[in-house]
Amino acid sequence: MTRTADHSVGTGAGAGALAVLVASVLWGTTGTAATFAPQVGPLAIGAAAMGLGGLLQAAVAGRSIARFRASLRARWRSVLVGGAGVALYPLAFYTSMRLAGVAVGTVVSIGSAPLASALIERVIDRRRLSRRWMAGAALGVAGTVLLCAAEAAGAGSGSGPGTGSGARTVVGVGLGLLAGATYAVYAWAAHRLITHGVPSRAAMGSVFGLGGLMLVPVLFATGAPLVASWTNAGVGLYMALVPMFTGYVLFGFGLARVPVSTATTLSLLEPAVAAVFAVLVVGERLPVLGWAGIVLVVACLGVLTVPSRRTRPRTPRRAGSGRTAAVPAPSDGAGDMVDRRVTPPARPQPPPAAATAYRTGGPADG
Fold first, then answer.
1. Which of 1, 193, 276, 312 sits CB 3.0–4.6 Å from 198 for a disulfide?
2. For 198, which DSSP code?
3. How far apart are CA 21 and CA 38, in angstroms?
4. What is the signed CA dihedral for 157, 161, 166, 171, rounded to 10 degrees?
5. Spatial CA neighbour of 187 closest among 114, 91, 288, 129
6. pTM of this structure
């Protein structure tokens, strides 16, 4: 049976939404931080950030992972798929920024993730998308497109990192789409583990720990520039400890309380934060079109984070009236409000000789 999810954030999920937003702010600093280590390649930056951060998450969650090892072993496919997504995401993401520019790479990678998450939920989890989520996602995607266009136009008039050949930009955009897909995959895998009884710490630690192990060979092969200077080393440590470790701990907390498609849509705040930091710290200039895109992203976040109204229960009629009483559906902890109807017990059937038969029942639970 297909479930219909209200992808708005209910009152009880406000803490989860706030955690995802704080994580998005931390992630938005990565592009600016990477500019302080221009000698370090994108593969090394990605492997250091996600690899070291993932291994640290696994170490901190060691006891929880050991305690729930049976559950994790039973769902090893989700752990493997999530770990592969964690390993591929930073390599595609940072290479996309290097080829297409920081703003374009960030916008494409993060802006495509909600759509990928929605597709995964629709195909695998049979979850319908609410109109509210679609409206919020439309605002967010429109804002990221405006931001991307503004940054691309600004880069085209100068000599920024996004002013390479058209082929480089196309490859960068393609890698950004791959990054968005892998982001959605590992977020879905972690959320699936959490909703099947694995605590957030154990789920995130196992998925990110496995991804970190997969990135160790890449780090050894490309990470020499990270130890060439204290500045490069500091950038690598910052990326691993703050945006990746702290950010994904907060993200795991949020995934336990909101659907994946809502979490990835809330993370559209990241490119907006990245653009603001680029203006304030790096000294880039953001055209009016870009600021309009940021306004749309903020509007998207407002649509998704305003608590949804709960349905008032209707007063049930007397027993035997043949009517059903609708009650507000309890939240499952992930913002998924499901319409449940309670049908009163059927009245006892009269003896066969009775001239009439009483019929009870209510609308089918769709």
1. 193
2. -
3. 28
4. -150
5. 114
6. 0.69
